Give the backbone structure.
Amino acid sequence: MIVLALDGAFGAFSAAIARDDRILASHREPGAVALELGLSTVEAILTRGGVRAEQIDRLAVGIGPGSFTGLRIAIAYAKALAAVWRRPLVPIDSFDLLEFGGRFECVLAVVVGRPGVISARYRSGSEQRRASGRTADVLADLRPPPGRLDVVGAPEDVLHALAERGIIVRPIDPTVLPAAAAAALAASQRTPPKSMHEVRADYGELPAARMPKV
């Protein structure tokens, strides 16, 4: 199975193409560049991977939580390509992308939003909780117990906040990068929704509002 995947959730735009369990090509453009460089990035990895559009079996896209603008653009591109090529589209959330390829008994996956704002998912066995907001509020809501905790994707301030709560933090980098590469590999193992219209962004929180000047 050949999968083309896009992601814009992590402060960058990435694209990847996979055949079964192997990445043929991937690329990550840092910053808010999805609108300017998104389609050219897709074209470049198809060329590098030696894959034509008609060979693609399905598409995948990261649905967040994460960057508001990046998510909107990546999902719009993925839906447009899926519609034109008449291929199914598989949504993958950001927490699954961070954890993909790892083995965890107890893990906290963290996605950074605006400064001081995060979305996080705590998972231990069959127990799972998630929250979004200010770091202190999120940790209070999730209540990770004292002891050893694997933490994926967290910046230094979140790690310090966890340590202050008596938690033995083990920072872990994502096993598969960029995020689109994890999405491409994960998508072959999932059942696509019946309609691409079921694929929606999960921003984690609403974007910061600004009062208009009178």
Summary: The longest helix spans residues 68-85. Residues 207-211 have pLDDT under 50 and may be disordered.
